[in-house]
Model the fold of this input.
Amino acid sequence: MEKQQSKKPLVRFPEFKDAWEHKRLNELLSEAKKRNEDLKYGKDEVLSVSGELGIVNQIEHLGRSYAGVSVHQYHVVEVGDIVYTKSPLKANPFGIIKLNKGKAGIVSTLYAVYKVNHQTAYGPFIDYYFSLDANTNRYLRPLVKKGAKNDMKINNAYVLHDRIFAPAIPEQKRIASFFTVLDKKITELKQKQSLLAKYKKGVMQKMFSQELRFKDANGMEFPTWEKKKLGDVALFLDEKRVPISEIERQTKKGIYPYYGASGIIDYVDNYLFDGEYILLGEDGANILNRTTELAFIVLGKFWVNNHAHILQAKGNNRFLAESLERINYEPYNTGTVQPKLNASVCKSIPIEMPCIEEQNKIAILLKTIDDKIIRTENQLKQTIQYKKGLLQNMFI
Done:
């Protein structure tokens, strides 16, 4: 147990000077024992606890209710209650602790529910404290004993047995308010990212269905798109590929990306290609289920193995890459054990192409949207990282 009875965080708001007290958690929380005996809450009001989303309605989160035959012994969770789930997660092997910010509901008896002592604690502060995996794991590790089936052996009251450092209520509220603003910014950036992705998808649908067309410098319509074969509009440079064994990669680590069917798999000390190319996955389940990009542009110096075709458009690389993403490759699958796109078959795939001038205009528009998406993604990553750094330094 921490011997110090008081301590100060590395980063704090200047108006607060007092040291934080090392308080037992049962001074801040108390066990909530209310059950759903009157069946006030039904199976459609069962809650789940998510590491990322917090406390959410189980049906909305998982698509169905996993409640037992009867829910009359389920714990009632009011808004503002703290819930500890005794289920191991990868980042939290001893479970997670979350504040209910949404609607009241019920949780199974595998959860523990706690009331916040408003004289000593502010619920959102407790929530942010335990939002750090390191804090949650450090607190629960000495308390929890695991059974043979990796289940948690801990009494609900005993969860409150250990201590955390906490300031007075005003500072707790100031800290929680600050992180609430950061969370709002993160939510806004995620929404912006989603809207931009939807906007790009809508623009592409109109572009590639030719519902939306560009005009030339004189305001005239561009020629009708022509149906061609992929081998006629792109150069296949597969003969220049050279695979590197895993042993060689381990002994020859470097700065140049080594690409496979779905992206970078390593870094090596030399490169085969220098410039802008398109990589098209040659084998793997992604050819059919399309969980990630199958065709993507690579720019710079890099190496590529024999699991990805390497192409160079005779027109615009970006336009061709976007076109390749829209193709259904299932009819061209030549694999037996796993899906595969044979080069000779790929070259025969029909593809509709506008003139190069229109290709360039479409590519410029899509790049403009992509740049906005990338900027938003970078802002989101930076804000999340900023929040994480402050969480690590503003709590003890």
Remarks:
- Residues 169-208 form the longest helix (40 residues).
- The mean pLDDT is 90.
- The domain at 20-166 is CATH 3.90.220.20 (Adenine-n6-DNA-methyltransferase TaqI; Chain A, domain 2).
